[in-house]
Amino acid sequence: MVRVQNLTRADALSAVRNPLAFIAERWTPTSRTVQRAALAALVMAVVIVVTGGAVRLTGSGLGCPTWPKCTDDSLTATSAMGFHGAIEFGNRMLTYVLCAAVGWAIIAARSQKPWRRGLTRLGWAQFWIVMSNAVLGGIVVLVGLNPYTVAAHFLLSTALITVAALMWQRTREGDAAPRPLVGKSVQQLVWFLVVASVLLIAAGTVVTGAGPHAGDSSEVERIPVSWENVAKLHAVLAWIVVTLTFALWFVLKAVDAPQGPLRRTRDLFLILLAQGVLGYVQYFTDLPEALVALHMLGSCLVWIGVVRVLLSLRERPEAVTDLPGPATASALTRA
After folding, report:
1. Can you tell me the distance from the alpha carbon of 68 to that of 85, in angstroms, rounded to the nearest whole number?
2. Within 73-146, where are the H helices?
3. Nearest residue to 126 via CA among 8, 233, 46, 193
4. How many Cα neighbours within 13 Å face the side chain of 85?
5. Helix %, strand %, coil % for the chain, to 5?
């Protein structure tokens, strides 16, 4: 049995004033714990996107017709609201699970020794994105699932995934200045890939906003374009991303690049192939809900793959602190 230290009044006041510092003084997580906390936040960021898609695909987007309450008279869904109310309210509750995962990542990063301020800031960035997206989600409900707000809701979720993936990567690196592993031309090619991927995801939100899955059984505003034409543009952009990824893999092999960028590029290429097959199948089968949900998951995985390729182009070893040599130490002692 380990005896728990009694808390004094001063300890309680310290915990109230700065709870993160209070926890950090009494807990030192391992590096693996910090990595797992960051990974949990990333996984939940993807889960909230997929479950949000499920809300839309089941027509439950207005299952709770108001916000922040579920109805004007109830904070939670009632039995009279049926299946759609339960789905929508359940997705709202998952936001608290996401907040818990992000909170764990913040606490773990703040408690790590030595304290890496950059990691903590990435955790707080996720928190504020979650809060902003929660408000935006409420606006989506209040404006009756306006497709432009729905698209913004998804893009802000993608921003959350970006920061979460960056934090996860940084937990496995040091804090020294980044050192490039490839030349400028390869870096420029990867940035072309990033831009093309952003356009691909943006076009996907337009397909969703113009397509048949409005998110509710009632009359819901759609983006006034042909979703089939936008889907074809989306497919063209997907082929551009696939081509750039294959070209990047070929260039990395030609310049004998390190294994890290090669593996990340290979992983992205495989994800893109699976996502492409899924996209064509759902297009020619009139967008069945299950395949659309899988395609949304694939979109998250594609973007994570792109971010990992970008981050693999440099390495960040542990920062080395210069220790005083014998002569310096003697001088300091004399002083």
Report:
1. 14
2. 82-111, 117-142
3. 46
4. 15
5. 70, 0, 25
The beta-strand segments (E) located in the chain are 179-180, 314-315
Cis omega before residue 68 (within 30°)? yes
Mean pLDDT of 194-220: 92
Under 8 Å CB-to-CB from 321, ≥6 apart: which residues? none
Burial of 260 (0-12, 13-18, 19+ CB in 10 A): middle
Integer Cα distance of 279 and 200 in angstroms = 12
Say what the pLDDT of residue 14 is: 59
| pLDDT at residue number 133 | 96
Which pLDDT score is estimated for 329? 44
Instruction: Identify the pLDDT of residue 6.
Output: 63
Q: What is the mean pLDDT of the chain?
A: 89
What Å distances lie between residue 215 and 59, 161, 176, 192, CA to CA? Answer: 4, 23, 47, 33
For the chain, how far is it from start to end, CA to CA, in angstroms? 48
Q: Is 216 helix (H, G, I), strand (E, B) or coil?
A: strand
Degrees to nearest 5, angle at CA 208 with 123 and 230: 120
Question: In this structure, are strands 314-315 and 179-180 parallel, antiparallel, or unpaired?
Answer: antiparallel
The pLDDT-based confidence of 331 (bands split at 50, 70, 90) is: very low
Check if the beta carbon of residue 278 is closer than 8 Å to that of residue 204: no
Using a CB cutoff of 8 Å and minimum separation of 24, what contacts does 325-332 make? none
Q: What angle do CA 305, 306, 309 make, to 5 degrees?
A: 85
Which of 211, 230, 207 is closest to 220 using CA atoms?
211
- The one-letter amino acid code at 59 reads G
Answer yes or no: are the C-beta atoms of 187 and 313 closer than 8 Å.
yes
Write the single-letter amino acid at 259: Q
Asked whether the beta carbons of 200 and 241 are under 8 A apart, the reply is yes
